[in-house]
């Protein structure tokens, strides 16, 4: 999970810096000047310029001479991962059936370091939708999918996580005490699902179940999220948990393939 | 649009090679050995090893010591582009409404070099779904969205494309004659939509409309695809074209923002 280790002698620093330049762009900063990129990456202007011009030559970045922005080619990098994973394609029809049944948004995510990363999402048809898409990241400790995935970690990795993760008070309900979080994760591992009540964002409840791969290990989590206005915590558990668990089982059956 | 130009003296070759290592992985090759990566990138084994180990240290690649595979962190690279684009989020609810109305899959794509890249997709709820997701690429000339996007290119870029693109016979119907393709694109520019009848794949018809951004330029294309079993070319045009054009207009209105 986190931690900046010493770099091996074979480490290619130019690659690290080039990838940092790509990651300098985000939803709030889709267009950056050379100075912006230098400041956001900690590179000198001369170095930032070399990496930006290289990315322009390779077709990953567009520039009008002053402003730089990412181009669609950049999607090819992440697409290799998503298409190789297979999971989103297998999960999608089951997620769609679940959303049609319960009218709440369904997502599948995997753990990346201390965060969950969405790899598939089926939003419900509401006027107000949350701005979550494939690639969105949230801190694992405050989300139902993150807790399901943390609960499935080997003991040593979990201990390392609890010792090092920064548990921030995101809402007044967020659990930030490592000992309390460990107790919650133990319970989740035993019961096979997690429910999180407004710990990531006020008004947002979600429940998640683990998805086991063909070899039995937890490979992902699947969730449903619901606005608090849908009803009480207990009502959500009663209405949404059984179909969610059934969906997780169907995805697992497809992952195992024809027997 | 394609073409390998001479590299500038400031070009960072290590970054190009590192990105090539990432792109060596794909749906058919989600796990690669060091030798595989060297062969697929044209790098020496020693160089491939340095880049792979760097990507492992940075958390983008996983290895068991022998096999290498991409990790979820790689999505962060493409996510910056998608979230900065704004378009998928704006288009999604309109695409969902269209799919609910016509029961065919809807996609939005942009042009990247000679290919279209999917940036949003709402599949229809069918048992058989096509394995297309965000990041999927197709050659522009054989797809309805590609033709809409090509038809909106400045004359010099279009001439360059027609002079250099490799127009391959993907089905027995694919138009591969540049002069004929140019005539088709002229017609598309005039009529404001494209219909492609089984030129990318036998049995697959699709129609696409341009999406104009706030400043009037074509920023994307939106399409519907339908299996040939749905009915004749004319039936598809009559049933699907009006709702598709209406959807494109609604997306454009939202892109312009409150007036």
From TrEMBL, chains A, B:
Lineage: Bacteria, Bacillati, Actinomycetota, Actinomycetes, Micromonosporales
All residue ranges annotated as the HTH iclR-type domain in the record: 12-79
Annotated InterPro entries: GAF-like_dom_sf, HTH_MetabolicPath_Reg, PcaR_PcaU, Tscrpt_reg_IclR_C, Tscrpt_reg_IclR_N, WH-like_DNA-bd_sf, WH_DNA-bd_sf
Record-given protein name: IclR family transcriptional regulator
Keywords: DNA-binding, Transcription, Transcription regulation
Pfam families: HTH_IclR (PF09339), IclR_C (PF01614)
Claim: DNA-binding is one of the keywords in the record: yes
IclR-ED domain boundaries: 73-257
Natural source organism: Micromonospora antibiotica
